[in-house]
Amino acid sequence: MFTTDILVIGSGVAGLSFALKVASFACVTLITKKKQADTATNLAQGGVAAVLSAEDRLEDHVNDTLISGDGLCNEEIVRLVVTEGPERVRELVTLGVNFQHGAQGEEFDLGMEGGHSARRVAHAKDLTGREIETALLAQVYANPQIEVLEDHMAIDLLLESKATGRKEGQDRCLGAYVLKRSTGEVETWRAKVTVLCSGGCGKVYRYTTNPDIATGDGVIMAWRAGAQVANLEFVQFHPTCFFNREAKNFLISEAVRGEGGILRNQQGLAFMQQYDNRGDLATRDAVARGIDAEMKKSGADCVYLDITHKSRAFLQQRFPNIYGTCLKYGVDISSQPIPVVPAAHYMCGGVKVDAWGCSSVGNLLALGETACTGLHGANRLASNSLLEAVVFAHRGAQWVQNNWPELHTQSLPKVQAWRTGFARSIEENVLISHNWDQVRQLMWDYVGIVRSRKRLQLATRQLAPILAETTEHFHDYLLTPDLVELRNIVLIAELIIRSAGLRQESRGLHFITDFPNKDDQHFSQDTVLEKDKSEE
Fold first, then answer.
1. What angle, rounded to 10 degrees, do the helices at 75-94 and 58-69 form?
2. 438 and 399 fall within a common domain
3. In this predicted model, what pLDDT tens digit does every residue of 82-115 receive, in sequence order?
4. Which residues constitute the domain of residue 310?
5. Which of residues 315, 330, 345 is at a domain's end?
């Protein structure tokens, strides 16, 4: 049994930024599932979108975000994030993040990406996420108020209602049960405030750009604890993932199209203008659907992204990581087009939070990709995710600091330690891997870029026995990281399917053939789910 002031679950940009801010007045314990750099932040190539130039306007960034969100953005939140964004980006510089400077000595070398009406993406070549992660980690590890526990993963949240039996009023989060991966021991961590920053759920799909840790843990823990979750049907598929059997989940940044990259089919013909009048600079949902349609029409395994009109020197300077990785696998992008396919990339929905990052459960915050703030709506605008993470990390820290006198004095009731009962070790890992593979293929085939009522019904039917079997395994066997993740993957899949079935229209990232048009009269609001008392 352990106690801390603030428990942060996740070590991406949101979790690290938040931890640094609250460490000025509280003790922080930060747990992370794997090694310190294994996060979606670390893989982010594009950059941070913000109005950082005199040639750009806040109103334009707001409008671009609203257009991309396709009628579901919370405009108040959009304006808040866009307005506060520039200060947060410059704060990253003071923390040691080395963004590229402009050729004429400008403060930032601002990139152009799909859906933006101006150059406003601050970047560190094509390794922006790694640059931010490295700088923040250095600050976190140097801070004596922050304890970082690697190879620890949260299992479930501790709730006041379960600890005391009190059912009336808002429930309160008291911390989490945490699996120490190296020993298999389950630790009980109590905290005055718990913050979910555990990323998205890309691993629920067969093809994804996400790291292996992206199994929807934070969203599902919050849902099991009774928190509202919203808009889980809006899964963003990045249109251009490097198509190579040996290269694992390697993303070809949106910025390549921003710098003039052209999508071509197997005949070498540019095709995006057929699907969207913005062509190759259309938003990600439009580009992913265009590629999907082109591949289905031709039967091809991939399409091609052509940036060969740019010089080798430019490509090596602007995209060193992409250039080097593609070359490693036999593609010289200065003379050959890049084979690409769409892949699950970003979860626009998540734990429903207010303007301070607070969920519907007391003392439980959610930040970053784990949260649904209202910024992204039905489709995230490129490079708005890192922006949202730093803005809401700051706002969440402000909320905690403003309420700390009261939060700090709240008593933490005794909670029950984790009980293993008669659980035994799982001896055949195929019991987990088989179900894992089934879920990911099922989601890819039936709940992907283009959906239909029939496919969603089939997905529901086929997922039901897997859900029942996984629940049985969870109760029968001693916990392993794979079993905990499988439990979360199956449940997030079920909630995505349920959300997709509820939205009987096509909007943003959700395209369903039975309802190909947008229906503002009936579906211009969030899809909100909350656990029924009868659910697991």
1. 120
2. no
3. 999 999 999 999 998 889 898 888 889 998 887 8
4. 238-345
5. 345
